[in-house]
Amino acid sequence: MSLTLFNDLTRKKEVFTPIKPGQVSFYSCGPTVYDYFHIGNARPFIVFDVLRRWLEHEGYKVTFVQNFTDIDDKMIHRANKENITVKELADKFIAEYNKDADALGIRRPDVSPRATEHIPEIIHTIERIIANGHAYVVDGDVYFDIKSWPKYGSLCKQNLEDLEAGARVEPGEKKKDPLDFVLWKSEKPGEPSWESPWGKGRPGWHIECSAMSSKYLGDNIDIHSGGIDLIFPHHENEAAQSEAASNSGKPFVNYWLHNGFLLIDDMKMSKSLGNFKTARSALRQFPPLAIRFFMLSAHYRSPINFSPESLSQAVAGVERLRNCKADLDFAAKTRVNDNANFGINKFKAELKELDKNFSDAMNDDFNTAAAIGILFDVVYLINTSLKENEFLPSEFFMLAKKALDDYDKILGVIGRDDAETEHDDISAEIEKLIAERNEARKAKDFKRSDEIRDTLKVRGIVLEDTPQGTKWKREL
Ligand code: AMP
Ligand code: ZN
User: Fold this and answer.
1) Is a pLDDT exceeding 50 seen at residue 248?
2) Ion ligand 2 nearby residues (CB, 5 A)
3) Ligand 2 mean position to 261 CA, how many Å?
């Protein structure tokens, strides 16, 4: 079965065909770095990272770009409140984003561009749009001219009249049509600004994604993703801007993917509603593997409800997976016998069948919920084999361990144990941080030493200071 993806442009599941054979250009809208991200924001970061891993597993060379929005009203407001610069605020929350995302097992993107580091590209994109007759300048502001763009509304599937009815003109805006949106905002006192052909100012929100995706991935890309709330206006505007800039007649994006909302008490989790839980605080309360398990246990397009019950079910699920792995590792030390009377061919055939089911689930619009179900079938097969046979051949252990490891490279819900991590890069990194913390403590730099302890805690590593030195262990 080939990979199919639900494309919001056509509202249909479509077979995925990349622009260049064997390669995938993938842009995902990232966080606005004015605060810690919440567990609702974590949903797109986790699910689209899993899609990226699946595409790689299927042999594609994926270039995955996820931006940091580091200039907008919220950034300016928060920086002023804290009496720091917008750049200081962005630096702080990009570092905090990376800590939480690492802890949640989200792989770092290939490129993580920041809007403020792409002002020339943003200006160039706006110039292309103006030159092609789809934007106009009023007193140092630049607006996209909706009336010049008949395709507007084709992603969100709404007609211009309906959209216009919901559009607002903010005080001070001098646009021709309420739906016209800003590409460049003229300078306001106390706000960061950059030189431009239209005078000093700063970019509007949507234009950064058009400029940065074009820079790193080209004018026509394979996949663009984000939460469902981004379809309108953000993605509709991005599509209009990018296609108006390139003027090539080619679509900006071939497959638009959007995750459903993470809900709390059946309401969207959001900062503005005040019903949010940061990923940081969720990580203090629940193991990272359980948070991933919870996110992946629903289809990415369905709503998912964050509750103590759903998280405790996820904890139990992870425990079952990890117990299977631990039992397997233990049995591999004591119960190997290559002459054991075990039907290895039947076991291989069953694993193969499950492998096909796993692939079918992932190829069906990356249905991680079904894929987790199949992972449990694999666990059941391994557990039954261990229960029914006192001794098993080494090939059984090799195949069973490989199956769990391979699935976990995609889903990341089983994790590794301390014995394994002691020999890998993660453990080297932890040891380095512990050494740095010891130095900081010697130098009585307790701020730094506490910071390192916190960083590790977020990653599920707890430190114990003993007379023999600092020991670390992983919480689940
Ligand atoms: P923001 O930092 O607000 O731009 O959001 C970052 C990402 O999180 C975007 O892709 C949003 O669509 C997504 N998002 C925000 N709230 C939720 C939610 N409650 N559930 C799922 N995704 C969300
Ligand atoms: Zn975006």
Assistant:
1) yes
2) 29, 209
3) 17
What is the per-residue pLDDT across 106-144, written as a single tens digit (0 to 9) for each? 999 999 999 999 999 999 999 999 999 999 999 999 999
- The closest of 276, 236, 215 to 31, measured between CA atoms, is 276
Is the Cα dihedral 423, 428, 431, 433 positive or negative? Answer: negative
Find out whether the beta carbon of 43 lies less than 6 Å from any atom of ligand 1. yes
Cβ–ligand 1 distance for 18 under 6 Å, the answer no
Q: How far apart are CA 317 and CA 184, in angstroms?
A: 49
In angstroms, the CA 252 to CA 221 distance is 6
pTM score, two decimals?
0.89
Rg (CA), the chain: 25
Q: Is 33 in the pocket of ligand 1 (CB under 6 A)?
A: no
Low-confidence winner among 66-75, 341-350, 455-464 (lowest mean pLDDT)? 455-464
Helices (H) and strands (E) in the chain, counts: 16, 15
Report how far ligand 1's centroid is from the alpha carbon of 148 (Å).
30
Whether 270 lines ligand 1, by a CB cut-off of 6 Å, is yes
Tell me which H or E stretch contains 259. Answer: strand 253-259
Ligand 1: which of 41, 231, 305 to mutate, judged by most atoms within 8 Å of the beta carbon? 41
Residue 228 CA: which ligand 1 atom is closest? 12
Could you give the CA distance from residue 25 to residue 220 in angstroms, rounded to a whole number? Answer: 9
- Pairing mode of beta strands 262-264, 267-268: antiparallel
Give the strands of the sheet with 182-186, arranged side by side: 135-138, 141-144, 182-186, 201-203
Rounded CA separation 431/429 (Å): 5
CA gap 138, 182 in Å, rounded: 11
Cβ burial of 457 (10 Å; 0-12, 13-18, 19+) is middle
Q: Which protein residue's CA is at the shortest distance from atom 21 of ligand 1?
A: 261
Dist. CA 239–CA 253, nearest whole Å: 8
d(Cα 43, Cα 258) in Å, to the nearest integer? 11
Question: Where residue 169 falls among pLDDT bands split at 50, 70, 90?
Answer: confident
Mean pLDDT across the chain: 94
111: which DSSP letter? B
Cβ 434 vs Cβ 470: under 8 Å = yes
